[in-house]
């Protein structure tokens, strides 16, 4: 693959800012989406790059070179993606990768797409919940239908990413159809469907992908302050020899050499790697992240994680070192990691409510009590030791937060086994639809309302879905004060994880505005509770 086409002509409906070129700062350096796309293409030896420009075309002129060609779509105000793609036809002689310039994505998307030798290929991932999804329905791993209206698709198998490999012959047919189109605002993916049989529409699926689009100011701030720091943490290089040494400890009787493959698969506070042995056995290796010392009691995690396995909630753990936090567990084949969109599907919410029932009613005693007020005191000490950031109004806010202990004791606190870290990424669904709950680092005996508070807060649950989950959990008899208790714990979680973020950043991590966003939300919810 030597050719790429980047669509950069359109003006966003509610903004005059060309977001692909808008610089943002991360890790002390300025970057922009367009530069990132170009760097990824060049890393894959893609030599001929055609950029279709329109709105603010003069801003792209500095990029023009022998191998980067600017093509002007004079009708950009009246056309959409197919209109821009069609004006490039005189210049395109080969198959190409098509990229929409307002898209950010992991490098591996282009790495994998560039390996395909011929034909068309879509890229998809799980539903994001962004509200602007191009949903796809598959049949035998080929694209059967695409629609932005979920009511038109019986089985939503994922969401289309704005990156596609298009064969030259298919492109020619798409352009011929567009010449006779009466709707000049048609998007290219629909003409791609019209001019191919399903067998010619394979797709690459990227599970747990960090990606999105920047169409407005909110999208840009989310990219700059949250998503891009997360993307950088995932793509940071790691020491392969160090990882091989960890594996040698895990498998002392095995020869650990270059025949073992290691692929980073993300993680917020830790680094997670998919490990494949020469015999094709697959595992997940967890390496604790920076600043985790003192924040997590690994011996508690060891005991509680095994209890989760016994309850059928946690995948099998093959190795755990309670001194270093190194963990090896079974890799769930064809697994889907839930996100804030997919976690709120009715079938998933129902299964999560049942997971909570199993966990909270289990006649077991976890190795520790997770007392959020004691954790706040501990994290404050760690942040002081790390010489971390403190907001000017911290002491005043802290006083109000700590008063919640009396409030909760008054309304009643029940202690049961709890997970306490209910981000969507900790729910893994296997190919048969079973959901597992992973990463028991912060687990311990706690109030079940704390688990609900984390679930609803971390994943931005709608009020309707909150009621749905609670109704299933309580078999239709929701406790009268449950919503107020949940709100109190949401304040506590935001306050605690804000301090957690400042500790991490004091030790070299970058979370953008994540910590202050949580801190401010805690303050806002204190006003709601009062």
UniProtKB/TrEMBL annotation:
Task: State a single Pfam family of this protein.
Answer: Choline_kinase
Q: Which CDD domains match?
A: ChoK-like (cd05151)
Q: Which InterPro entries match?
A: CcrZ_PhaseVar_Mediator, Kinase-like_dom_sf, Nucleotide-diphossugar_trans
- Official protein name in the record: Winged helix-turn-helix transcriptional regulator
